[in-house]
Design a protein that fits this description.
- It is built from nine helices and eight strands.
- It is an alpha/beta fold and about 260 residues long.
- It has one domain: Vaccinia Virus protein VP39 (Rossmann fold, 3-Layer(aba) Sandwich), CATH 3.40.50.
- Strands 1, 2, 3, 4, 5, 6, 7 and 8 form an eight-stranded mixed β-sheet that branches.
- α4 links the parallel β4 and β5.
- α1 runs parallel beside α2 and α1 packs across α8.
- The two termini are about 25 Å apart.
Length: about 260
């Protein structure tokens, strides 16, 4: 499996990015697990988490699905080592580095990738690789975003510029922050069948403006890039929102899945 664009060197402050990931995991963990259940997790005996990060969702899947064997992979070796220690008591959960992905010992009833496909240079090729690791009628679930689905009222010009510039930065690294709107057609072209799609709104009303900015926007100012405008744009947007009586912003999380045909 090819290396994704999400690496430690992609950020000026990777420790800060880990904090954002932790906030993301604690904020949306139950919703993500519910999406997996809706897309076929119940009854699965073998599950693969692709891009497991700190392992919170993989651990929940392992602990709440009974006897299912859960494998989890990530390109960050430190995450994998830490997860193996943190979750050592979860006997049906096993962590592997990305380099060992081609040597995983089984095929799977269900595989899922959360916020991974936006970082892949060749998502179509990866879909073909993953299909070979699914059992017949096994299902692949992809959770991701499309920055075109971010909307706000009132408009904040520095925030709009930050969004556009960060789309470009990720594209330069062979990533794609518009991947969410493309996933259905990518799965169809790769031969997956019985597709299911859910769009989940995340809003400032749900989680608060501060958390929304941290989760959806702050990491863009943390990109390791020569474009010095990114941190300035982020802080300008924060200051503008602070003086508003009311501000609303929303984005959509895309969850799409498909089966390997018989």
């Amino acid at each position: 499996m090819s290396q994704p664009s999400y690496t430690e060197t992609a950020f000026k402050d990777f420790i800060g990015e880990q904090g954002r990931l932790q906030l993301q995991a604690t904020t949306f963990l139950k919703q993500e697990f519910a999406l997996l259940q809706q897309h076929g997790l119940s009854g699965c005996q073998s599950v693969l988490d692709i891009g497991c990060g700190k392992g919170e969702l993989a651990a929940m899947v392992a602990m709440l699905t009974g006897n299912a064997t859960v494998h989890a992979i990530d390109n960050n070796a430190a995450f994998i080592q830490g997860n193996a220690v943190t979750y050592r008591s979860v006997e049906n959960l096993h962590f592997f580095p990305l380099a060992a992905a081609d040597e995983l010992p089984t095929t799977y009833d269900l595989m899922y990738a959360k916020f991974v496909f936006q970082h892949l240079a060749d998502p179509a090729g990866i879909l073909q690789q993953l299909k070979a690791s699914l059992k017949e009628s096994g299902r692949l679930v992809i959770i991701d975003v499309c920055d075109e689905w971010i909307s706000m009222d009132p408009a904040i010009p520095p925030l709009q510029s930050l969004i556009l510039k960060s789309i470009g930065v990720q594209q330069e690294r062979s990533g794609n922050r518009l991947i969410g709107k493309q996933l259905v057609n990518l799965l169809k072209r790769a031969g997956y069948t019985n597709l299911r799609l859910d769009l989940v709104p995340i809003t400032t009303e749900q989680i608060g403006i501060d958390a929304f900015f941290q989760l959806v926007f702050s990491y863009r100012a943390n990109f390791s890039t020569n474009d010095v405008d990114l941190p300035a744009l982020y802080h300008q947007a924060v200051e503008k929102v602070k003086v508003l009586d009311h501000f609303f912003c929303t984005t959509l999380i895309c969850c799409v899945s498909g089966e390997r045909p018989l």
